[in-house]
Design brief:
Strand order of the largest sheet: 3-2-1-4-5-7-6
Number of helices: 8
Helix content: 25-40%
Number of strands: 7
Shape: globular
Largest sheet: 7 strands, mixed
Radius of gyration: 16 Å
Structural class: alpha/beta
Distance between the termini: 41 Å
Order of helices and strands: HHHHEHEHEEHEHEE
Strand content: 15-25%
């Protein structure tokens, strides 16, 4: 079931491989109680959610001790797949909807994930600071940047300087221009060859 992940991340440990394997059954079980993933997407979990999340890791690898905030984490994407891949980095997964955080906590406990802290809150209310902020299509970028820009510390705790790594699709030129930041766009179709990623991107801007 995790062939798509093995294909692009061949150096996984046995523990990481078993954690990725366990995700399908855990999400299927939780989804029956609290619907956070559509049935169609659940059947394609390892491509549409797990591998999609891991596109960020192809753009930036996080150092041990790096602090990463996942804003509007929903059912735990991209933070849970990334926390499995980077067990020595520290992840905070925040969402304002309590039932989604219940799922994130349940899945994280189910795979023994100790480097992820679920948090039910609006991101604007957080007092902590982070090295990187990740997210998946939560809102338009100008609003997103307003929410989180002052929560990012300058520096470099990965293969790119600290900043925002955001998963989004389509033509983002006008939307990104309204943030008045310097963005790089990484087409995921150049990282992974599954058709699902044809129009999807990782967009990045450093905290300067």
């Amino acid at each position: 079931m995790i062939e798509p992940i093995d294909k692009y991340f061949p150096d996984l440990t046995d523990r990481q491989r078993s954690q990725y394997e366990a995700l399908y059954d855990l999400y299927a079980d939780w989804n029956a109680k609290i619907n956070v993933i559509s049935r169609k997407d659940l059947d394609q979990l390892h491509v549409r959610h797990v591998l999609h999340s891991l596109a960020i890791a192809k753009v930036c690898r996080f150092d041990a001790g790096a602090r990463i905030l996942d804003v509007g984490c929903g059912g735990g994407f991209p933070s849970i797949p990334l926390a499995i891949l980077f067990p020595e980095a520290q992840f905070t997964a925040v969402d304002s909807i309590a039932k989604k955080i219940t799922v994130v906590r349940g899945v994280a406990e189910g795979i023994g994930l100790t480097n992820l802290t679920p948090c039910c809150a609006r991101v604007e209310t957080l007092n902590e600071r982070f090295d990187y902020v990740v997210s998946r299509a939560v809102t338009e970028m100008p609003a997103f940047v307003r929410w989180i820009w002052e929560k990012i510390d300058r520096g470099q705790h990965g293969t790119l300087p600290n900043g925002i790594l955001y998963l989004k699709g389509g033509d983002l030129t006008e939307e990104l221009a309204r943030t008045h930041k310097a963005w790089q766009q990484f087409p995921i179709s150049e990282l992974f060859d599954e058709e699902f990623f044809e129009t999807k991107k990782v967009v990045y801007t450093p905290k300067k």
